[in-house]
Design a protein that fits this description.
CATH architecture of the largest domain: Orthogonal Bundle
Strand content: 5-15%
Keywords: ATP-binding, Nucleotide-binding
Protein name: Protein kinase domain-containing protein
GO molecular function: ATP binding; protein kinase activity
Distance between the termini: 90 Å
Shape: globular
Pfam family, one: PK_Tyr_Ser-Thr
InterPro entries: Kinase-like_dom_sf (IPR011009), PRK1-6/SRF4-like (IPR046959), Prot_kinase_dom (IPR000719), Ser-Thr/Tyr_kinase_cat_dom (IPR001245)
Number of strands: 10
Radius of gyration: 23 Å
Order of helices and strands: HEEEHEEEHEEHHEEHHHHHH
Length: 382
C-alpha cells in the first residue's frame, strides 16, 4: 500500500514538472523565444550569434529547420520568375541566394506584432536584416511581386530601401540593409545615449521629408506609411532618420490590420471604421510628442485595436502642460539646455498637437506640417 502511494505521488510530481516546462515553452514562444526582449520592440539588440536555421526552437522565430522547403532558392534580379526565388530589387549590388542566407551567422533582433527580424552576416561580408512576416499569407503571388516592385522604385535618403524579397504562400521574407546605430526608440529610452534638441529637430525634419515623399509617390494609397512609430525609425551614424516597415498595409491580411498597424489606433478608425490621408499625420503627431516629451502611453504599442482613453488623456496632458505656468516641464530633460531654444521647442510641440487633433477637419494636412517644421531652427543651426 505504501509503495502504491509513493508511486502515485511520484507520478503527480512528474506531471507537475511536465506542465511547468510546457507552460515555460509556451511563454517563450509567445514572447518570441530567445533573443526577444520583453516589452516594446525598441529593446536593445540581442548579441547571441547563431546559425539562422537554428536561432531558436520557437516556430514563430525560425525561418525553417528544413532549408529544402525553400524551393528553387536561387538569387535573381528584376521581375520575379517563380515561387521560392530570392528576388533582388536592383542588379547593381552583390547578390546571394537563399541557401547563403540560411547558412549565415545571425542574431535575433526581436519579434513583434508584424513578425521576427534577424541580422545576418553573409560570407562575403554583407550585413543584412531579414524580416519574416506573420500575417501575409492571404496575398497572392502576383499581387505580392507587384507591390514589392512598387517598393523597389522608391528612392529617398530617409527611407530604408528594400534589397530583396522571398515569396512562398506560407512564408514572406523581406531583406534590407542593416543600420548599425539602432532605432530612435533605443536612443530615446536607452541608458547610453542622449538626444539633444538639435538632433531631435533634425530627426523630425527627416521623418517628415520621408513621409511626404511616400505620400507624393504613392497617391493611390490611403495610408502610404501605415506604421510610423519610434521603433520603426532607424538612425544612421549621423543621426539622420531612416523609415522602415512602411507601405505594408496592401499586403497584410486584412483581418489583422486593426490589431497590428498603428494607423488603426487612430480616433477616426475607432469612431468611423476608416482611415484617411490624415491618419499618417496623426501617427506623425504622436511621434513628435514622444520625441519632445521622451515618453509615450504604454497601451499605444499593445496588440489591441482602438483609440484608447489613455492615449487621449496623454495627448490632453501635454496640451494642458504646454499652456501651464511651467510649460518647460513637459519637455524631455535629456534635450539639454533650453535657453535660446524654448520657443522653437514649443512650436514643434504645438505642431505635434495639431497633428493629433481628433476631428479630421481640425487636423493639419501633411503639406502644412512640412511647411511649418521646415521653418524651425535649433540655436546652433546655420
Amino acid at each position: 500500500m505504501l509503495i502504491a502511494i509513493c508511486l502515485l505521488a511520484l507520478a503527480v510530481i512528474i506531471l507537475l514538472i511536465i506542465n511547468v516546462l510546457r507552460n515555460r515553452r509556451n511563454e517563450e514562444a509567445t514572447l518570441g523565444g530567445r533573443g526577444h526582449a520583453i516589452g516594446p520592440s525598441f529593446s536593445p539588440y540581442n548579441t547571441n550569434s547563431e546559425n539562422l536555421t537554428g536561432v531558436t526552437s520557437s516556430p514563430e522565430m525560425v525561418l525553417s529547420a528544413n532549408p529544402s522547403s525553400y524551393t528553387g532558392a536561387k538569387a535573381g534580379g528584376g521581375a520575379a520568375s517563380g515561387v521560392g526565388k530570392l528576388t533582388f530589387i536592383k542588379g547593381d549590388r552583390a547578390q546571394f541566394d537563399l541557401q547563403d542566407l540560411l547558412r549565415a551567422s545571425a542574431e535575433v533582433l526581436g519579434s513583434g506584432n508584424l513578425g521576427s527580424s534577424y541580422k545576418a552576416l553573409m560570407m562575403d561580408g554583407q550585413t543584412v536584416v531579414v524580416k519574416r512576416f506573420k500575417h501575409m499569407n492571404h496575398v497572392g503571388r502576383e499581387d505580392f511581386h507587384e507591390h514589392m516592385r512598387r517598393l523597389g522604385r522608391l528612392d529617398h535618403p530617409n527611407l530604408l530601401p528594400l534589397v530583396a524579397y522571398y515569396y512562398r504562400k506560407e512564408e514572406k521574407l523581406l531583406v534590407v540593409d542593416h543600420v548599425s546605430n539602432g532605432s530612435l526608440a533605443t536612443h530615446l529610452y536607452g541608458n547610453d545615449s542622449r538626444l539633444d534638441w538639435p538632433t531631435r529637430l533634425k530627426i523630425v525634419k527627416g521623418v517628415v521629408r520621408g513621409l511626404t515623399y511616400l505620400h507624393v509617390e504613392l497617391p493611390s494609397l490611403v495610408t502610404p506609411h501605415g506604421h510610423l512609430k519610434s521603433s520603426n525609425v532607424l538612425l544612421d551614424n549621423s543621426f539622420n532618420p531612416i523609415l522602415m516597415d512602411y507601405t505594408l498595409v496592401p499586403v497584410l491580411n486584412s483581418d489583422q490590420l486593426q490589431n497590428i498597424m498603428i494607423v488603426y489606433k487612430s480616433p477616426e478608425y475607432a469612431r468611423q471604421g476608416r482611415t484617411t490621408k490624415k491618419t499618417d499625420v496623426w501617427t506623425l503627431g504622436i511621434l513628435i510628442l514622444e520625441i519632445m516629451t521622451g515618453r509615450f502611453p504604454a497601451s499605444y504599442l499593445m496588440q489591441c485595436p482602438g483609440y484608447g482613453s489613455e492615449l487621449a488623456s496623454w495627448i490632453d496632458s501635454i496640451s494642458a502642460g504646454l499652456d501651464g505656468e511651467e510649460s518647460d516641464m513637459i519637455f524631455d530633460k535629456e534635450m539639454g539646455d533650453m535657453r535660446g531654444n524654448y520657443e522653437e521647442m514649443r512650436k514643434l510641440t504645438e505642431i505635434g498637437l495639431a497633428c493629433c487633433q481628433e476631428e479630421l477637419d481640425k487636423r493639419w494636412d501633411l503639406k502644412k506640417v512640412s511647411e511649418e517644421v521646415e521653418k524651425l531652427k535649433a540655436r546652433d543651426d546655420d
